[in-house]
Description:
Elements: H1 3-14, H2 17-26, H3 33-38, H4 42-51, H5 61-69, H6 73-84, H7 97-113, H8 118-124, H9 129-138, H10 143-158, H11 164-173, H12 177-189
Helix pairs in contact: 7-10, 7-12, 9-10, 11-12
Amino acid sequence: MDPFLALLHSFSCSFTDKELSSLKFLCRGKIGKRKLESTQSGNDLFVCLLEQKLIASDKVDFLEFLLKQLKREDLVSQLQQFVADGEVNAPEEQPDAHEKRRLKAAIEVVCDNVGKDWKRVVRKLGVSEVKMERIIAANPCNLHEQFTQSLLEWQRWKGGDAKASDLIKALRDCHLNLVADTVEQKLKELNLETR
């Protein structure tokens, strides 16, 4: 599924009738009157905007303008997060089922055993400061959740290239060998060693 279309659909589901009416009014100069009259939902409107090439996964300025006019800062920030995450460039493939289980187990152990040094680990994995700051802002008083969301963000960003072994290497690079050993032991207990 196209992540941009999924994002547009989620926006559409959140629009009230009044907001849809406002959006249609704001698009009057861009979309023909007949098409606007037949538009019954946010999805219909987005289809028109996509057809007119006014919005695209790499062209979101007009969409951001529309959302700001509605004063829907929640949606504006979702859109900005989408752009910042480079969601359109995310790898299509996902890790295989075995690697997903390994990653899930590894992330649980790591989050339970790494405290205030979590940012060093996440930086070693290549997650940007901007993404980390957004995650911290979304979870201001919960260190465990900040770390968990940062690791999940890394996993989404890497897609099929995300490996538990990368997480273990990042731990060792940060001199968190005891945690790395604990992860390896947990994977062994769960019969999730590398094939």
